[in-house]
Amino acid sequence: MPDYRRYRAQGGACFFTTNLLERHANDLWVRHIDILRSVVREIRKRWPFHIDA
Q1: Which of 11, 34, 41, 43 has the fewest CB atoms within 10 Å distance of its CB?
Q2: Amino acid 51: pLDDT
Q3: Any idea what the Cα angle at residue 20 is, between residues 48 and 25, rounded to 5°?
Q4: Can you give the residue ranges of every domain in the chain?
């Protein structure tokens, strides 16, 4: 995995994406979307951020 170095500035932006190894006919995100939403909700309480998309 690359060793990215990031300049941390207040108000900076981050790009985050995910995908699955086996994308075809895989409903993992659909089956577990409630878990993902609850995790994002808890993280936002601790470190506030907004999602543009």
Answers
A1: 11
A2: 85
A3: 125
A4: 21-53
- Tell me if 29 sits within 8 A of 20, measured CB to CB: yes
Tell me which residue has tokens 């993902």: 36
State pTM to two decimals: 0.60
Sign for the CA dihedral angle at 2, 52, 13, 10 comes to: negative
Query: Are 26 and 20 spatial neighbours (Cβ–Cβ below 8 Å)?
Result: yes
Quote the longest CA-to-CA distance of the chain: 40
Question: 1-53: per-residue pLDDT in tens?
Answer: 567 676 777 877 777 788 888 888 888 888 999 998 999 999 999 988 888 87
Tell me the two tokens of residue 39: 């995790």
- What are 3's two structure tokens? 């060793």
